[in-house]
Design goal:
The complex is a heterodimer of chains A (95) and B (485).
Chain A lengths: L4 H10 L9 H15 L23 E2 L9 H5 L5 E2 L2 E5 L4
Chain B lengths: L4 E2 L4 E13 L36 E2 H13 L7 E2 L1 E5 L9 E5 L8 E6 L5 E13 L3 E3 L6 E5 L6 E7 L6 H18 L11 E11 L9 E6 L2 H20 L8 E5 L4 E4 L12 E2 L6 E2 L2 H9 L5 H11 L4 H8 L2 H11 L4 H19 L10 H12 L5 H11 L6 H8 L7 H14 L1 H8 L5 H12 L6 H13 L1
Parallel strand pairs in B: 13-14
Antiparallel strand pairs in B: 1-2, 2-11, 2-12, 4-17, 5-6, 5-16, 7-8, 8-11, 9-10, 12-13, 14-15
Helix pairs in contact in B: 1-4, 2-3, 5-6, 6-8, 7-8, 7-9, 9-10, 12-14, 12-15, 14-15
C-alpha cells in the first residue's frame, strides 16, 4: 500500500501537524515504506485464529464506583499555557 | 398513512433516527475516580486521566458497566459478553486526550426494541441499533471573553451511554414520544436521571426525506446536541422541509452535521465538523476487551424493576384504567407509586382521576416534585374516602383539596375546621330552596310558564346560599319535585 501526497496532507491536517508542502513527497515515500514493511504480516495465514488482544491471559481490571480523585484544579491547570478564572483559556473557537 | 409533508411535487415522508446521549448515573467517572456532580468550581472534578496528562492510564468503572447492561436489558436488547473500547480521534479544545474513548465495532449492547405509545392508543415498535459506553468531553464557554474560549474539564470523562435507534421514526411526534419513553425507562432503571436541562440527556437527530410510497433511504443530515424534546421536534420539521425544498428545486443533499438554532428556528451547517467524519477509530491499546460474566448479566436481569410498559399493562388489568390514563400515571415511577398508595382499597377510577387531575395540576403549579408532593398520598386518599362516604360532594372535595395544598392537614380536619361537610339533610336543603323561591317569584313564574333553562339558575342560587355545601344530586331532585307541584 502506498500513500500519495494528498493523503499525507490530510493525515497531517487531522493530527494538527504543520507540514511544509515541499516535505509532503518525501513523507509520502517514508510512510509508504513503513506500511509496506508492516504489510508483511498479512503473509501469515490467520484463518480461524481469534484476534489476540493481550500477551497475558488477564481480564480487564475494573474500578469500584467511588470518588478517589479530583479537587486539584491548581495542579490540573499548572501546565496550561494560558488560564483565567479557573478555566483553561484557548483561542476562541465558535461555530 | 401517517405524517406527511406537502411539497410542490407531492407528499414526502420523513425518516428519522435518533442518537441519545444519556449520562450514566454514577458517583465517579468512566475511567477515573473524579466525581461527576453537576456544577462545581471549574476544573475541580478532574483527575489527570480526564485532563489527558501524559502517562495516565484509564481504569474502567465496573458500576458504569453494570448500568449499561441494566439499560440494555431494559431495552430488550442483546448483551454482548465481549465488547471493545476504541479511540475516536478528533481535535477540539475541550477534548484533552485528542480522542474520545468510545466503542465502535463491538458495543456492549446490540439490537433491542422500544415501544412508543401513540395518542390514539396504538403502539409502535422502534428498533434500537446499539448502545455503547463512551466518555463525555469537557465544556467550552465562548461568551466569557472577546477573543478566548474557556474550557472546563469537569464533565470530561463522565460516562455516557450512546443509544442509537434504527431509522424507524416517521414524524416529529414519534421522535418526541421515543425520547419521552426512553427517558422514562432510564429513570425507572435508575441508570440516567434524564435531566435534559443539565445535559444528562442530549439528542442528535438524523433526518432524511423520501417521496411518499418510496422505500429508499436518501442522504441524511445529523442535527447535533438538541436539549429539549420540543426543540428536537422543531429541528426535525425544519430540516425535513429544507430537504424537500432542495430536492424539488433540483438540488441534492450533502451528508453533513448541522446545528439547531432555537432562537431563529433553523438548522445551520457546522463547518468545523466537515473534516471530522474521519475519526480513525482503532481499539484502545490502554484497555483490554471487556468480557462480562453471564452470571452478572443474569443477576442484573433478575433485579430489574417493573418497567413502564409492564406497569401500564398491569394498571389497565388490575385497576381497570384506560391505556391512556394508565400511560399518564406510569410515565414516572414515583407517580405510579403515588397512585397505587392512593388507590389501595379505594375506588380506582376516582383515585386515577384525582391523581391525574387536581393532584398533577397542583404539583405542576407548586413546582414541587412527586417525592415532595404538595398533598401527600395519605391525605389525598382520605379526601377520596370522604367523597365515597358522602361527606363531600365532588365540588366540595375540590375546595377541600385546594385548602390541603401546601399544608399537612388531613381532609377530615379541614372539613371540620371550615364546616365544609356536605348538606344531605332534606329539610335543610328544602328550607334553602324555599328561601330562594320566595325571594324570586318572577323567575318562579317564568319556570312555571315553561322556561326550563332557569332551573340551572335556581340550582346555582341554592348552592350559593348553602356555600356550595348542598348535595348536588339531592338539590336537583328536590328542586325538580318542587316545580312539578
Amino acid at each position: 500500500m502506498s500513500l500519495d501526497k494528498s493523503a499525507v496532507r490530510t493525515i497531517a491536517d487531522l493530527a494538527r501537524i504543520r507540514v511544509p508542502e515541499e516535505d509532503l513527497d518525501h513523507l509520502a515515500g517514508e510512510l509508504s515504506n513503513i506500511l509496506t514493511f508492516i504489510e508483511q504480516l498479512s503473509e501469515v495465514d490467520t484463518d480461524g485464529v481469534a484476534p489476540m488482544s493481550s500477551v497475558a491471559a488477564v481480564g480487564l481490571p475494573l474500578r469500584a464506583d467511588s470518588v478517589t480523585d479530583g479537587g486539584q484544579a491548581d495542579a490540573v491547570l499548572a501546565n496550561a499555557p494560558d488560564k483565567a478564572e479557573g478555566f483553561f483559556s484557548v483561542p476562541k473557537v465558535v461555530e | 398513512m401517517g405524517y406527511l409533508l406537502q411539497g410542490e411535487t407531492g407528499d414526502w415522508e420523513v425518516v428519522i433516527g435518533l442518537e441519545v446521549h444519556a449520562q450514566v448515573t454514577s458517583k465517579s467517572k468512566l475511567f477515573s475516580g473524579a466525581p461527576t456532580l453537576f456544577g462545581g468550581e471549574p476544573n475541580d472534578q478532574v483527575s489527570f486521566v480526564d485532563a489527558g496528562f501524559p502517562g495516565m492510564l484509564p481504569v474502567l468503572n465496573g458500576y458504569c458497566v453494570e448500568q449499561a447492561v441494566r439499560t440494555g436489558l431494559g431495552l430488550n436488547a442483546q448483551i454482548n459478553l465481549t465488547s471493545v473500547f476504541a479511540r475516536k480521534n478528533y481535535f477540539y479544545a475541550d477534548l484533552p486526550q485528542g480522542y474520545q474513548i468510545s466503542q465502535y465495532e463491538l458495543p456492549i449492547v446490540g439490537e433491542g426494541v422500544l415501544t412508543i405509545d401513540m395518542p390514539d392508543g396504538q403502539t409502535k415498535h422502534i428498533g434500537i441499533e446499539r448502545l455503547h459506553l463512551e466518555q463525555d468531553a469537557g465544556k467550552s464557554l465562548h461568551d466569557q471573553h472577546p477573543t478566548k474560549s474557556y474550557i472546563d474539564l469537569n464533565r470530561s470523562g463522565v460516562a455516557l451511554m450512546e443509544i442509537v435507534s434504527k431509522p424507524d421514526l416517521r414524524s416529529p411526534e414519534e421522535a418526541g414520544l421515543y425520547i419521552a419513553k426512553l427517558r422514562s425507562i432510564l429513570r425507572y432503571l435508575g441508570t440516567c436521571d434524564g435531566n435534559m436541562q443539565e445535559g444528562s440527556l442530549r439528542c442528535d437527530a438524523n433526518v432524511s426525506v423520501r417521496p411518499k410510497g418510496s422505500t429508499e433511504l436518501r442522504t441524511r443530515c445529523e442535527i447535533k446536541n438538541v436539549n429539549s424534546i420540543k426543540f428536537v421536534q422543531m429541528a426535525i420539521e425544519f430540516e425535513a422541509r429544507r430537504h424537500i425544498e432542495i430536492y424539488e428545486s433540483g438540488g441534492t443533499i450533502r451528508q453533513e452535521t448541522r446545528l439547531f438554532d432555537s432562537v431563529k428556528v433553523e438548522t445551520r451547517s457546522m463547518r468545523s465538523k466537515e473534516m471530522a467524519h474521519d475519526y480513525r477509530y482503532f481499539p484502545d491499546p490502554d484497555l483490554l476487551p471487556l468480557v462480562l460474566d453471564p452470571k452478572m448479566v443474569e443477576t442484573i436481569k433478575a433485579g430489574l424493576p417493573e418497567l413502564p410498559d409492564d406497569k401500564k399493562q398491569r394498571f389497565t388489568v388490575e385497576y381497570g384504567l384506560s391505556p391512556y390514563d394508565a400511560g399518564v400515571l406510569v410515565a414516572e415511577k414515583a407517580s405510579a407509586e403515588f397512585f397505587e398508595t392512593v388507590a389501595k382499597g379505594r375506588d380506582h377510577k376516582l383515585a386515577s382521576n384525582w391523581v391525574s387531575g387536581d393532584f398533577f395540576a397542583a404539583l405542576n403549579a407548586s413546582g414541587k416534585t412527586i417525592e415532595d408532593p404538595p398533598v401527600s398520598a395519605k391525605n389525598l386518599g382520605e379526601l377520596i374516602d370522604l367523597i365515597s362516604d358522602g361527606t363531600l360532594s365532588g365540588r366540595l372535595a375540590k375546595d377541600v383539596f385546594a385548602l390541603m395544598v401546601g399544608t399537612d392537614k388531613s381532609a377530615s380536619i379541614l372539613v371540620e375546621e371550615k364546616g365544609l361537610r356536605q348538606v344531605t339533610d332534606t329539610g335543610a336543603i328544602e328550607a334553602a330552596i324555599d328561601q330562594v323561591l320566595a325571594a324570586n317569584p318572577d323567575k318562579v313564574a317564568e319556570v312555571m310558564a315553561g322556561k326550563d333553562k332557569l332551573m340551572g339558575w335556581f340550582v346555582g342560587q341554592v348552592m350559593k346560599s348553602t356555600q356550595g355545601k348542598a348535595n348536588p344530586a339531592m338539590l336537583n331532585e328536590l328542586l325538580a319535585k318542587r316545580f312539578q307541584k
